[in-house]
Write a structure and sequence with these properties.
Length: 222
């Protein structure tokens, strides 16, 4: 078997850049210098260039002919649009998944919900566990295209989830955890309608909350 070293290195570079953007190490609007990045990671410019193109397709990076690559700025209109799409797609995914989840998969979702709660106070760990919990709830989806779309939207909105979390109070965390437990109960009982409503409400509440904090979207525009 022949391994394409450039392709595999591109994936490594893309993953590291994606995590740096998600964690806020690379802030919105920050320039990404290909030569400096290649030197820092100990690779040629080829995988860095290809990784940036991949991240551009995810909406995380913008590339301009004369100014190079930059971390995409936080865009309120993009955020509102994607969250509205998620409010439609993810209830559908839960409805398709709920009757197909195995006992082991339901147990994994429950384990991840507990991990989310245990991660309160550690924003990076909380966001990571929360993402894995929600995707675990859709593990029974039989349509790969639907699941890919949802994962792509989660990738694009990770930056928005990070600034959303910065607005949370203890009560907000408690509310999110209660909603997770209710979603788990819908999975356990097979109550599709309730599960769909809970997921839709969960996402809509996040969208409306950030709509009340539009000042957070100014970062990177100055």
């Amino acid at each position: 078997m022949i391994v394409d070293q450039d392709a595999s290195m591109t994936q490594v570079v893309a993953r590291q850049l994606r995590e740096a953007i998600f964690d806020g190490v690379l802030e919105p609007g920050a320039a990404i210098r290909q030569e400096a990045m290649a030197r820092e990671l100990g690779v040629s410019r080829i995988p860095v260039r290809e990784a940036l193109r991949h991240l551009e397709s995810e909406g995380l990076v913008t590339i301009r002919a004369n100014s190079g690559a930059r971390v995409a700025v936080l865009d309120f209109d993009e955020y509102a649009e994607i969250y509205k799409i998620r409010e439609r797609l993810e209830p559908l995914a839960l409805a398709e998944s709920i009757g197909r989840l195995t006992e082991e998969q339901r147990a994994e979702a429950a384990r991840l919900a507990a991990e989310v709660e245990a991660s309160t106070g550690d924003p990076k760990a909380w966001l990571d566990a929360d993402r894995r919990f929600h995707l675990a709830c859709y593990a029974g989806v039989s349509t790969p295209r639907l699941l890919r779309m949802i994962v792509d939207f989660w990738n694009t909105t990770q930056r928005y989830r990070r600034i959303l979390l910065a607005t949370f109070s203890d009560e907000d965390f408690a509310t999110a955890h209660v909603e997770h437990r209710l979603i788990l109960d819908a999975l356990r009982t097979g109550n599709t309608r309730v599960g769909e409503d809970l997921i839709r409400m969960h996402i809509e509440r996040s969208r409306m909350r950030l709509a009340n904090h539009r000042e957070l979207f100014e970062q990177g525009h100055k």
